[in-house]
Design a protein that fits this description.
The chain is an alpha+beta fold. It is built from 3 helices and 5 strands; from the N terminus they run αααβββββ. β3 and β4 form a beta hairpin.
């Protein structure tokens, strides 16, 4: 089974701030605070999606790299999530086998809730401009 490498968030928010109770009100802080947990949960969901349709994925990251390019707070915060909003994490660092011996790079958008884990995942063929 392919396993996505674990990484450190690119935001550089200090650990002390990330542990503060008001972190959820600062987008960079909240995105970084849940980056690693989201990366683990989303990687599993992406791998499951590929296995159910195509087979094993190929991650296009190094052991220190992240599977995500960026994260963004969900603009539609449900009242039940106040103080713990969901984050959309997006990336393109995976290839899915196409069933004909080749593979295609994919873009994925994973909605991660600190309370509920992965709540939605969209995957489509493509990659971000370099």
């Amino acid at each position: 089974m392919a396993v996505a490498p674990k990484s450190v968030s690119p935001f550089g928010v200090t650990q002390a701030w990330a542990q503060a109770g008001e972190c959820w009100q600062n987008e960079d802080c909240w995105v970084e605070r849940h980056w690693s947990d989201a990366e683990d949960a989303c990687a599993r969901a992406i791998e499951e999606r590929s296995r159910s349709s195509f087979g094993e994925v190929e991650w296009l990251t190094s052991w220190w790299g992240s599977i995500f390019r960026f994260g963004k707070l969900d603009d539609n915060i449900h009242p039940s999530e106040r103080g713990s909003p969901s984050v959309y994490y997006t990336g393109d660092k995976v290839r899915f086998p196409n069933g004909r011996g080749g593979s295609a790079q994919m873009i994925y958008r994973c909605k991660y809730s600190p309370n509920y884990g992965v709540t939605s995942l969209t995957v489509r063929k493509g990659h971000f401009p370099r």
